[in-house]
Amino acid sequence: MNRSYVHGYDTLESGRLEDQARTLEDLLHHDTRYPPESRVLEAGCGTGAQTAILARRSPGARITAVDIASDSLAAARKRLAAIDRADVPFLQADCGCLPFADHDFDHVFICFVLEHLVAPEGVLRELKRVLKPGGSLTVIEGDHGSFYCHPETRAARRVVRCLIDLQAACGGDALIGRRLYPLLQRAGFDDVRVAPRVVYADPSRPAWEEGFSRNTFIAMVSGVEKAAIDGGLIDPDAWRQGIADLEATIGQGTFHYTFFKAVARGPRK
Amino acid sequence: MNRSYVHGYDTLESGRLEDQARTLEDLLHHDTRYPPESRVLEAGCGTGAQTAILARRSPGARITAVDIASDSLAAARKRLAAIDRADVPFLQADCGCLPFADHDFDHVFICFVLEHLVAPEGVLRELKRVLKPGGSLTVIEGDHGSFYCHPETRAARRVVRCLIDLQAACGGDALIGRRLYPLLQRAGFDDVRVAPRVVYADPSRPAWEEGFSRNTFIAMVSGVEKAAIDGGLIDPDAWRQGIADLEATIGQGTFHYTFFKAVARGPRK
Question: Which chain B residue's Cα is nearest to A196?
Fold first, then answer.
């Protein structure tokens, strides 16, 4: 797995992802619940932000989580222990080459992972291999190209573009949300259903302005400042202006972003 | 009212608007219902596509519709007569200067109108004048800047940009959806609540691919071909390529557009 430096593994990032998980939990997870005793794989669990949500929402499910990065796994184990779910096993593994038998899981869940991959279709085929026929695959991804705001300036669009370009330079695709449908079709899943999950913030929705606009999206863009400037994509003044313009929408303008959630079935043979 | 040539009044346009009204009716109108005997004003009714929906969904409400264009009003009267609602009065009037007393209406409805106006805030203030204190204003608008698709080409984005630029050249704002919140706030309404209404089409949703992607959105973009080419915004080859690229998403890719619906209250004095 080629995870880029765009979303990192450091402590600040981990805090950001936790904020994001809380704010977005209802929007993204309200319709994901796994039955007691069902075997669930979370592929690419990172520091366990989504694992904790899954474990809380599906307390009887037997969840296994894998990630390629040992430091992420350590953080994830700690996070789950803190909510008394030390029973969730975390395994170090590449999502493209999983240490599980064919059809081992009733359900597979993967969230904010495919965007980082050079070959997302290959990983999806591997997830299909370990999924029971008729079992469910759930994929959640963002799409940074779905972002817009008001007032919207050229400088604001430019800093967001830096994030997209940096992810592309690492072989990822920050615009993957819009192509989940064809991707899952091509990977051979059945009954592919994709639905947009829209974030809309304006001053009548301060929890979204703070929780998403400021603490999730602007924080994520801000996280690539050094990479964007050092990489020659933008100069420091233009960067500061773009971030300031994004922040200026809060409390007076509007902020728009779309996530995509796909649910598909493992092929019945 | 400065209505541009971007959306016209000819027969083809009228057919397109009817298709759009049907496809989008549930998405946009499912939560608009006026009580029997309430006085409802539709401002800028055009050829009556929305008026017919209001009349059907709120059969007991006393609807009055106004538009500045007499030929549109003639088409609207005909449309309502065809569904046995010839009782709906249609008046020729400028939405910025309405022939009604202060606080004359319990509810005001305006749909796909503000985008065409040079001074939408002034019209909103006039609507506020004729609305009872605490009465509801409902506004529905699109936002062409919310459009994206997959696969997305430069040529596809360019033809959509032509539509936006032509509307701007006429003094309108094809990106008005995103600024409904600040606009209604500034016009002095209370309890402003805006919600995105998202269109997402992929091959699993053929009704949306045909009803929206092809027959609404691509048809609307296609409607400005002559204006865009004659105006020197684009050459014929680039135009054809852009439209072909938009059409190529149907049946294999994805198509994304967001409408905005705002509901606000007339100020209680």
Answer: B200
Q: What is the pLDDT, as a whole number, of residue A109?
A: 98
Q: Tell me which amino acid residue A233 is.
A: L
> Which residues in A64-86 are b (16+ Cβ under 10 Å) and which e?
bbbbbbeebbebbbebbeeeebe
In this structure, are strands B254-265 and B148-150 parallel, antiparallel, or unpaired?
A: antiparallel
pLDDT mean over A204-214: 92
Strands A62-67 and A39-43 turn out to be parallel
* Residue B198 at interface with chain A, using a CB cutoff of 8 Å: yes
ipTM computed for the complex? 0.90
A200 DSSP β-pair partners: A256
Per-residue tokens: B176: 């008005």
Is pLDDT of A122 > 90?
yes
pLDDT band at B9 (very low <50, low <70, confident <90, very high): very low
Q: Are strands B148-150 and B90-92 parallel, antiparallel or unpaired?
A: unpaired
* CA dist., res. A142 & res. A164, Å (int): 12
Helical spans, DSSP H, in chain B: 11-29, 49-57, 70-82, 120-130, 154-169, 180-186, 206-208, 219-222, 225-230, 236-248
What whole-number distance in Å separates Cα of residue B87 and Cα of residue B73? 14
Q: Which residues of A21-36 are buried (b: 16+ CB within 10 A; e: fewer)?
A: bebbbeebbeebebee
* Burial (CB count within 10 angstroms: exposed 0-12, middle 13-18, buried 19+), residue A237: exposed
Chain A interface, mutation test: which of B153, B184, B200, most A Cβ atoms within 10 Å? B200
Per-residue pLDDT, B14: 62
Q: Rounded CA gap, B144 and B116, in Å?
A: 13
d(CA A212, CA A20): 7
Per-residue pLDDT at A24: 83
* DSSP-assigned letters across all residues of B131-168: EEEEEEEEEEE--GGG-EEES--HHHHHHHHHHHHHHH
Phi then psi dihedrals of residue A15, to 5 deg: -65, -40
Compute the mean pLDDT over every residue in chain A, rounded to the nearest whole number. Answer: 93
Residue A195 contacts B where some CB pair is shorter than 8 Å: yes
Q: What percentage of chain B's residues is helix, strand, coil (to nearest 5)?
A: 45, 25, 30
Q: How far is CA B186 from the centre of its chain?
A: 21
Q: Which of A145, A203, A204 lies at the smallest CB-CB distance from B148?
A: A145
Confidence (pTM): 0.91
